[in-house]
Design brief:
Layout (H helix, E strand, L loop, with lengths): L19 H4 L4 E2 L5 E5 L9 E2 L6 E2 L4 E4 L8 E2 L4 E10 L7 E9 L19 H10 L12 H4 L10 E6 L8 H8 L1 H15 L3 E7 L3 H10 L6 E5 L8 H9 L14 E5 H13 L5 E7 L7 E6 L4 H7 L9 E4 L6 E2 L13 E5 L18 H5 L6 H9 L3 H6 L10 H5 L6 H64 L5 H63 L1 H31 L1
Helix pairs in contact: 4-6, 5-6, 5-8, 11-14, 15-16
């Protein structure tokens, strides 16, 4: 079925493979170094978290850092010894950065932990099988180091139809997968069966470039009535790219912003399959891998089985050292690898090649000239992008526009840079643009998180305020209800009774006011009587004085007239005395 639908992808370039430097050499086991430097971040996702401390003794295969989060992978001790430091050390990175590493001083004994494989994985629960693979620290060994167990858990929404094993190994110089397929095909086939069981895949295809006939025959010879196909694919870089290999094998294209599982496909590297076999059937975690040490700058190019954490400079020494012709030291291949700024960086899970390159192996950097818009880069792009347009947007830092024309579909294969007559390092500009966009997104994410925290705090304060108001209202309602119940228990005073009580109160007030008024009136009456008596006495005294005066006048004016006037005066005086006595009696009666 597969042979009938072989297709090809857009673009690509034919490269001198330079694989003969190491393809004919047997694999040797690298020497045990005095110290191992094991980075906590050797994979895509979150860094692992140490579970050992300085001074601890460890055995080979012992977990020394556990996975932190779902997209992560644990790290195991590559040999027995003692943890002497957990500190920053130079790591394989284009920037020459340092990162946290667990440093183990080896004891030379290389003692393993107790290991035991699964008796029958076919009767093992799928989730348990995935956890076993995860705890072994297995990641993709042919690419960026994506944790393998995640690919084995596509979820209920996806049905996996085809499992593809990538044995293309399309970059020049690299032969580690080729040697593994030739020397240990049984491990690869065993691992494939485990992966197939975990995914419930209907079809399995092993893809091998047609420049590896020995590997192709070795795998074919290992198959005995298994429903597994081994297919040769054209030698065209980058046929080993995930999306390109899927297109060649199945004729299907992975959708933009999609994943292979969206079209029912999972792809794994042949080295990853061998690691799965060792983890499940032998109980051996991932602590080493095949690494190609090659290039015109190394004396004895070969493939080595290397413990993770081994410094690169020690590998070069085991291959006879470097010569004066070496101009650059590259980790990875000439197309997708990166130059090492320090030679003491450790080998990690994704290290497949150490290239001691001469100027013949890698052309020296040429002065960059202006883009002539020849279109060669677009013709070579295996993803059908417009590299020249992406370049202009990257130079002008118009990252949004670059993103709109599918910048992140770029697989950074280097085909565009390879064919550019102006020697423009296009991949450098694309990586720069991606990094800037990622940094901007991280800043935006931080701002969003800060805003979310503020809004959550404000919502909490508003909620607490509302809760306090509700509690207060509830308390008031309870008091009102209690008072109402109390009034109801006393029988409930009617309106008539209330009016009667009010009238009684008013009558009591009126009576009290009357008593007060009655207490003050006798005193006022007494005061008025005294005042009238005094006026009567004064009036009588005045009349008596007048009588005396009249008497004197009578003596002067004659007796007759005097007697008459005297009588009148005496009568007036008598009347006045009578009034005075009457007033006095009235006063005494009061």
């Amino acid at each position: 079925m597969i042979n009938r639908i072989l297709s090809r992808f857009h673009g690509g370039v034919h490269l001198p493979d330079r694989k003969s430097l190491t393809a004919g050499q047997p694999v040797r086991k690298a020497h045990l170094p005095d110290r191992l430097y094991l980075p906590l971040h050797q994979h895509i996702g979150a860094s692992a978290e140490p579970v050992v401390a300085v001074g601890d003794s460890v055995l080979k295969g012992q977990m020394i850092a556990h996975a932190c989060g779902y997209v992560s992978a644990p790290v195991h001790a590559s040999s027995s010894g003692k943890v002497i430091a957990i500190e920053d050390h130079a790591i394989p990175h284009p920037s020459g950065a340092s990162a946290s590493c667990i440093v183990i001083e080896t004891d030379g004994e290389d003692r393993w932990i107790e290991r035991s494989g699964a008796e029958d994985y076919l009767n093992m629960d799928h989730s348990h099988l995935r956890n076993l693979i995860r705890n072994a620290g297995i990641v993709g060994l042919g690419g960026a180091g994506f944790p393998s167990f995640i690919k084995l858990n596509p979820g209920p929404d996806y049905q996996i139809d085809t499992l593809i094993l990538n044995g293309a190994e399309c970059e020049p110089f690299i032969t580690c997968d080729d040697l593994l397929m030739r020397m240990h095909p049984e491990e690869i086939i065993s691992g494939i069966k485990i992966l197939r069981y975990a995914l419930k895949a209907k079809h399995v295809v092993i893809a091998v470039e047609d420049n590896k006939p020995e590997a192709y025959q070795s795998l074919k010879g290992q198959l005995h009535n298994e429903d597994i196909e081994v297919v040769q694919v054209p030698t065209l870089y980058p046929v080993g790219g995930e999306k390109q290999l899927i297109q060649v094998i199945t004729g299907k294209e992975v959708p933009h912003d999609g994943l292979p599982l969206n079209i029912g496909i999972v792809i794994q590297n042949v080295s990853t399959a061998a690691a799965v076999h060792r983890a499940v059937n032998e109980g051996t975690p991932l602590v080493s891998r095949y690494v190609t040490v090659t290039g015109g700058g190394v004396t004895q190019p070969r493939n080595l089985e290397v413990l993770f954490g081994t410094p690169v400079n020690e590998l070069l020494e085991q291959c006879g050292g470097t010569n004066m012709a070496m101009s650059r030291l590259v980790m990875g291949g000439p197309m997708m690898g990166f130059e090492l700024h320090q030679h003491n960086v450790p080998v990690i899970k994704t290290t497949n090649c150490i290239l001691a390159a001469t100027d013949h192996d890698l052309s020296p950097e040429q002065p960059m000239m202006p883009c002539i818009r020849c279109g060669s880069c677009a013709d070579a792009c295996p993803v059908s992008l417009l590299p020249q347009q992406l370049y202009w947007f990257a130079r002008s830092k118009e990252f949004d526009k670059a993103q709109n024309i599918n910048l992140f579909d770029c697989i950074e294969c280097g085909c565009c840079s390879y064919v550019c007559p102006s020697h423009i390092p296009l991949v450098h500009y694309f990586r720069f643009s991606k990094a800037e966009i990622a940094a901007k997104e991280r800043e935006q994410e931080k701002a969003d998180q800060a805003r979310a925290r503020h809004e959550a705090r404000q919502a909490r304060l508003d909620r607490e305020k509302a809760e306090r108001a509700a509690r207060l209202a509830s308390k008031k309602a309870a008091l009102a209800a209690k008072k109402a119940r109390s009034d109801g228990a006393s029988g409930g005073v009617s309106d008539d009774k209330k009016a009667a009580i009010k009238a009684a109160i008013e009558r009591a007030k009126a009576k009290k006011a009357a008593k007060k008024q009655a207490g003050t009136e006798p005193e006022a009456e007494k005061n008025r009587a005294v005042s009238e008596r005094k006026r009567a006495e004064m009036k009588a005294a005045i009349e008596q004085a007048k009588v005396k005066k009249m008497a004197r006048k009578q003596a002067e004016s004659g007796h007759e007239r005097g007697v008459s006037e005297q009588k009148k005066a005496e009568m007036r005086a008598a009347i006045a005395r009578a009034k005075a006595k009457k007033a006095e009696k009235k006063n005494d009666g009061i």
